[in-house]
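tool=predict chain=A
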Amino acid sequence: MDSFPTIAVISILVLFLANNIQTEAQLSPTFYDATCPQALDTIRTSIRRAVSRERRMAASLIRLHFHDCFVQGCDGSILLDETPTIQSEKTARPNNNSTRGFEVIEAAKREVEKICPGVVSCADILSVAARDASVAVGGPTWQVKLGRRDSITASRSAAESNLPSPFANLRDLISNFKNKGLSARDMVALSGSHTLGQAQCFVFRNRVYSNGTDIDAGFASTRRRQCPQTVGNGDSNLAPLDLVTPNSFDNNYFKNLMRKKGLLISDQALFSGGSTDSIVSEYSRNPRTFLSDFASAMVKMGDLEPLTGASGIIRKVCSAVS
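tool=predict ok
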């Protein structure tokens, strides 16, 4: 006679626990409100300090977050150094001698550890840092969802296969982002982060010496000055992705594309007679739409495969499993 009530109670408890686990696994902007209420202010201060020292760092931090999320999800795996058991993503072709800002994230982590040891993940610090870097150079803000935990692994091979190539055509770019649950519009908006930062000669050499119809002749000539044609000569020489306002977050990147002045092959692919031309045109006319879409796309990207709950760890330092 007592079996039905007992089963019913057990079912209710199981349902309650399942709902609780699901709730705990969701990212939330208020995740640290009780456990480390000063975390966001502390990170913001650290990032502002770094960007004030070097404006280019804003672009580097946004890119670092992107390169983290596209490999194993937003789990801080890109921050891990090489060990006998870890093949660091830092040495993958898209990252080697190119991704920057690791020391900025470590500095922010040290400041947070002083006030809340072992509470805030490196993955979350990197996510917040990207938002704060955007704001520091006049870009949009967004509400960062928190509660990610840190990976104990990295994948150099996944970094080499998952990250978009600077030589990619539009079809491959759309496919690459679609594989991560991001739309073509998200892809164009996120590409707008190239309104900041610089690129090395070896990734734009082919474009500026192509004599193609999709590049402005004067622009190509200007870029050749920093980039000798001979491979191996001046490979690491830098040129701004946005010639006009390389240290300000604005919509000039899209205006440049419409004038055939995209620096990378993958930049100009967004405005080359294809399906994304209309989005580029819209963003070039409506900066508010671009800033809003960029913020939304960054939130979506930040949701990629986070480690939550009992998965992963909270690293003491971001470069090592500790």
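The chain has a mean pLDDT of 92. The first helix runs from residue 3 to 25.
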